[in-house]
Amino acid sequence: MRATRSVTGPWCLPHAKVPASYSSGMAAVSGHPASEDGTPGVPPAFREAVEALRGTRLRPEVVIGDTPAPRKLASYAFALTATVEVDGEELADGRLVLLHEPGGHDAWDGEFRLVSMGRAELEPEMGSDPLLGEVGWSWLMDALTQQGARWTEPSGTVTRCSSQYFGGLAEREGSTEIEIRASWTPLRHDLPGAGFGEHLRAWCELLCQCAGLPPAPPTGADPGGSTAGAGTVAGVVPMPTRRRPV
């Protein structure tokens, strides 16, 4: 029977050490056991998905962190954090959660669901752009397409938050932050675990876009090839970020 609601008491991967970054070629996922009362073993499909994440290579600006997986969203869950860092400065950060419900979940239209949040500080004037929401959402859709991911049932929000300072804080410059929350159902490929790495790369590419970095070459592109047209993917230009003073 397909699940129709969240399941309490999920089983999650044991807590694991996390490498400093994906430059080592290893992704990181984390979690903690939810029960010790003889819960059946991890479904092979879920374990394969986690192994696929662990084997994903990402661009060197992405740094992975450890975070507990949620316990009440599905029977099985993993979570990780990522930051985009350039010259020791953090430009964007976010969290990605992989959920699994054996037998499927009606609301997901599948057995897996990816839930994400990403945010970055922008130039203040960008907050008044009426197309900010549409552009931010298109970054995720374009990144999934460019990385060769397959998905269905996407949903999410793009939020802008502008801050102006007064009184004792009046000397601080105003700030504008974009936050993109999204979830989607990954469609599996024929091979075990195949396809999950593409979703992880796409999400990290979204963070890099929010940070104002030039898009990475799409999957299959030659990293050492021509740089003509660098800085755009499918006509989308990265939004300038607001760099904090050192």
Descriptive overview:
By secondary structure, the protein is of the alpha+beta class. It has one domain. Helix content is 17%, strand content 30%. The protein has three helices and seven strands. Strands 1, 2, 3, 4, 5, 6 and 7 form a seven-stranded mixed beta sheet that branches. A hairpin with a 4-residue loop joins strand 4 and strand 5. The protein is elongated. The termini are far apart.
A few lines on this structure:
The chain is of the alpha+beta class and 246 residues long.
Short key terms for the protein model shown above:
7-stranded mixed sheet, single chain, alpha+beta, disordered N terminus, disordered C terminus
Q: Which structural class do the helices and strands define?
A: alpha+beta
Question: What's the helix-strand series?
Answer: EHEEEEHEEH
Determine the mean pLDDT. 76
DSSP E strands, number: 7
Ordered list of secondary-structure elements with their pairings:
Layout: E1 11-12, H1 44-54, E2 62-66, E3 76-86, E4 89-105, E5 110-122, H2 132-146, E6 151-163, E7 175-186, H3 196-210
Parallel strand pairs: 1-3
Antiparallel strand pairs: 2-3, 3-4, 4-5, 5-7, 6-7
Helix pairs in contact: 2-3
